[in-house]
Amino acid sequence: MAHRYFFDSVESFLPDALRGFVAANPEITWHRDPGFLARRTQTPSGRVAVLSGGGSGHEPMHSGLIGAGLLDAVCPGPIFTSPNALQIAGATRHVHSDAGVLHVVKNYTGDMMNFRIARDIVRDEGIETDVVVVADDVATESDGDGPGRRGTGATIVVEKVCGAAAAAGATLAEVTALGRRVAENARSMSVALDPCTVPGSDQPSFDLGPDEMEMGIGIHGESGTERTQWRPAGQIVQALLERILGSLGVAAGEQVIVVVNGLGSTHPLELSLVFGQVLEQLRAAQVRVVRSLVGTMITALDMRGASVTVVRADDEIVGLWDAPTDAPAWPRLAATEPGELMDTTVAEPDDAADSGPECGWLTAFVSRVQGAIDELTALDRQVGDGDFGVNMAAALGHFELPLRGSDAAVLDAVSRSYFVRSGGTSGAVFGTLFRELSKAFTESDDFRTALAAGTRAGLQSVVELGGARVGDNTVVDALDPANQTLQQNDSLAAVAHAAAEGAESTRDRVARKGRASYVGEASRGAVDPGALVISWLFEAAAG
Ligand code: ADP
Ligand code: MG
Q1: Among 67, 315, 479, 508, whose Cα sits 20 to 30 Å from the Cα of 109?
Q2: Which residues on neighbouring strands pair with residue 304, listed in sequence order?
Q3: 459-493 per-position pLDDT tens digit
């Protein structure tokens, strides 16, 4: 059996998860008989209670939405299976005060039946209830007499608006009417890049090829309406919005709330990226996005995918959306329209070295590194994590040769470039070394004096920064012998030789600093790429 989940036993997966959930959220309690979650605080007299529920596996919906201003109780069914009518009836009794109870139900046959039976049971006991059915998934839209649109992403919008209205003292009829208004004006559609797997099962809910995606999937791992090759996010969003807006009949100038939701295993960066596309395309269609929620709210277990929900929203609905709630999973949202889609790239650093006299030795150094990116990558793959070549290319790849300017100016440009353009340890280490070299060349016009002073200061700063000693397989193994030779007034050729020997000395040692230290014995046999690059610098200085 494939083990892709944390659990102690498949059978106890759900109760074990709920145990942790209620412990982490002490305002929420578990009622074992007949099995529901509810706020610890009783519904006050005169306030409508709002109750929801459904199959488990969609968390944080619904359990995370229990709290003031949102849901009063939730009936969790087994994974992807509706709760039973007795659970729902018990929860309804529990949250009922004297103003009635609203059920928010997703449009699935089992859910519809069990909530209906529960309402019949409690009606005979004199409890007034009503229901809002959420049916927003355009992927299952049909003219025929099938079950119709499934209830998906819009559910949390309905729950939020109804919960806020109930908290504000609306009557059951008013809360119900509001919920229906939201539900009727909401549409969603989902897309998956990977299917989900039920805990304990060794089969995913459907099979997707490595380069395939599926449009129109449901939140129970139901396969979708269209399997296609992977497409860029902008195209996926375009296809989703076309269906959603078409079904909703949204016209230019209308106000909407947008939810971009992760289906379980989608990274927050991806959801932000998708939202950027949704916002851009809706704005291009002159649809006014007045509020947004981007996050993982309604999941299909561990599915990699996203859903987009668009809700036509008048000012009353927006006001209720903005109302405070202390439900643990409701994010802190801006009560304003989304802002500008700005240029969020990083500004290019001011590191040109293209005016003045040619700077021969640094041109030779940069040229050497530019021509050795693959070699450096291969070395770091052996001794470290493989990104050293990329970092060197990022720092030095953009320079047009020959470099021009005084030694101090070019060294300063190289230092800035390392700091801003390169990542990893090398950006910090080489940026620091070149900054010290630049300072020394500003202070002295004599090449040898400046190189000696800069190397000494650079070595000192690099050691202060990273604590590396000779023998740790870092740039220090080349810098330290170069520094010693420089201070002894030997020839620059001797300095270069000392640096090269220092770099070579790293070959048969195991690294103790930087990423290379994590690979241990595997690093034996290859020179440290950082030390190698340092040796090239002194070789270039020797001319
Ligand atoms: P990362 O270790 O973050 O992957 P890079 O691959 O960009 O960084 O750089 C690795 C190089 O950095 C190594 O080859 C080594 O020469 C140098 N280095 C690692 N740790 C230190 C340190 N503590 N002091 C000086 N140089 C270091
Ligand atoms: Mg690395």
Answers
A1: 67
A2: 194
A3: 999 999 999 999 999 999 999 999 999 999 899 99
